[in-house]
Structures are given as C-alpha cells and as structure tokens.
Amino acid sequence: MKKVKKIFYFITSAFMYTVLFLMILVCFTVAIYVLEFNRAMKNGNPPTPIFSSYIIASGSMTPNINVNDMVINQRVQAYEIQVGDVITFLSESPFSNGLTITHRVAAITQAPDGSYLFRTKGDANQTADEWLVPEENIIGKVLVKIPYVGYIHSFLLNSYGFLIVIVIPFLIIVIYDFIKLSRLLVKKGKNQLEKVKKTK
After folding, report:
1. For 98-200, where are the alpha helices, taking DSSP H only?
2. What ranges in 158-167 are assigned the alpha helix state H?
3. pTM reported for the whole predicted model
4. Domain map (residue ranges) of the chain
5. Which of 115, 116, 110 is nearest to 87 (CA)?
6. Whole-angstrom Cα distance, residue 132 to residue 93?
7. d(Cα 27, Cα 88) in Å, to the nearest integer?
8. Is 100 in a helix, a strand, or coil?
9. CATH topology classification for 48-154
C-alpha cells in the first residue's frame, strides 16, 4: 500500500510541477511578446508572431486536418510559400470576413505592385476559394498538426475539466504533504518526550 501511495504521489507531483513549469513558460513567452509588440507598435509596425497555433473548427481540410486538430504555423515570407503548402490566413471573404482560415495553396499570382496573391482551397471542398488571399493576410505556413488537442482545450476551458485536471491533483498533493508533515512532527514530539523521560 505504501508503495502504491509513493507511486501515486510521484505521478501527481510530476504532473503538477510540469503544469507549473508550462504556466511559467507561457507567462514568460507572453511577457516577451507583449514587450516586443509594444515596441513595434511605437514604431508603427505591429509584428506577426513567429509561431502560432489554432484549433480547427470546420471539416474543410479533412481527411488531412480534422475538426479539433491543432495546427502549428510558422511565419514565412510570401515568396517562400509554394503551391501545395497549407497556410493559415485572415479571410476577406464576405462569408467569413475576419475569420482565421487554414487551407491549401492551389495557385499563386502576383499583383501589379509585385505582391503575392494566393488562391486557396480546402481539401474537402469541391472548388477553390472565391477570394484571393493577399500576402499581408497570411499568418503562417502550417508546420505540423496535433490531433485531438481541441477536445483537451475545450475540456480544460470547462470548469469541471479545470477542477479535475488542476485543482483536485493540487489539493491531493497539499493534503498528502500536510498529513506527512503532521506525522513527522508528532513522531519528533514523541521522541523528544521520551528523551525528557529518560533524563529524569
């Protein structure tokens, strides 16, 4: 039984320390990004993050990218994008204006000013997207997809999910440490009491 408790304590402790480390890492990353963003805004040049991630909300890219998959994007120059690449961009279509879309590049053209325009298409769609994507709307090229992360994301955003994954393991560790410390103090007190009795 003691061995099981030790294993359980080790697993929960490792999990909580991992979560704590990730939270610190996220806070550190956000702080750096905010500083960079504020500096760039003062210069009139708001930056695009080097890496970004999005949860897929529609099935337009199935079966290659499914609903609730996470895509990791890397910021690239427009001339680096090739036909067949999957990109994430801000849509200017009247049907999805302002939404973030992840589709495959079907064709590339250049505007009279030399800037690039991209024709995109969802793998599951019969036809290409009607509206061209200007290079300034591109968030990044998809590097990798991570399946099912959207389910975890939704679960953690739910109050019950947060309670089960974060709060309960944390409370278990705190209670376990408190009981362990209490037993240690009681044992130490008994030893000191026995020493006092022996000296008498």
Report:
1. 149-157, 159-162, 168-199
2. 159-162
3. 0.64
4. 1-47, 48-154, 158-199
5. 116
6. 9
7. 25
8. strand
9. Umud Fragment, subunit A (2.10.109)
Distances (CA, A) of 86 to 39, 135, 143, 144, 195: 31, 14, 8, 10, 75
Phi-psi region of 29 (alpha: psi -120 to 50; beta: other; left: phi over 0): alpha
- Please give the structure tokens belonging to residue 5: 């408790």
- Which residues touch 2 (CB under 8 Å, ≥6 apart)? none
Phi, psi (deg, nearest 5) at residue 169: -60, -35
What is the helix (H) or strand (E) element at residue 13, kind and residue range? helix 2-42
Radius of gyration of the chain (CA): 27
Condensed to tens digits (0 to 9), the pLDDT of residues 43-89 reads 666 566 788 888 999 999 999 999 999 999 999 999 999 999 999 99
Q: Which helix (H) or strand (E) holds 15?
A: helix 2-42
